[in-house]
Amino acid sequence: MALAKQKDIVNDPIIMKAGDSLTQRELEQKAIKKFNSGRYNLEPKTIPMNSNGVIIKIDGYDSKENIVCEVYCGIGKLKAGQIKKVVTDGFKLIFFEKMNARDDQKKCRKILLFVDEDVMKSFQSKSWYSMAFEKFDIETRFVKISDKEIAALRATKELQGEKFKKQISK
Question: Is the pTM of this model over 0.85?
């Protein structure tokens, strides 16, 4: 899709400003709502981890069902930094579980939620991080988003790339 058409899509009032991670954050919450669909009550949560002010921000947490979830709204071919971000999210889920183990339930259900099925499959491959996710009981799940939301993510990704190129060329 040409950049002009992508910009037209993201200028739609339903979709947030392109090039801003706000678009991705909004879609993270839409993905969580779709995943919940009456079964769960995952909500964003900021949780203090100790008395020294260390906090952890979780994309979705359901205390009743003891589920913790991080969402990755990236689409398309992954770069090394994006893989690192998802692996870091997986580590965050493990850390959360270890720091919040309840007496009645030592483990929580840990989910990495993706909006691109091919990206999700990259984390179900024959890689060390896929093995680690399996070893630490981290589920990889997919939730479908609309074509309009995918177009907004593409436009955001392209505009973020343009902003980055401008910054490094200065």
Answer: no
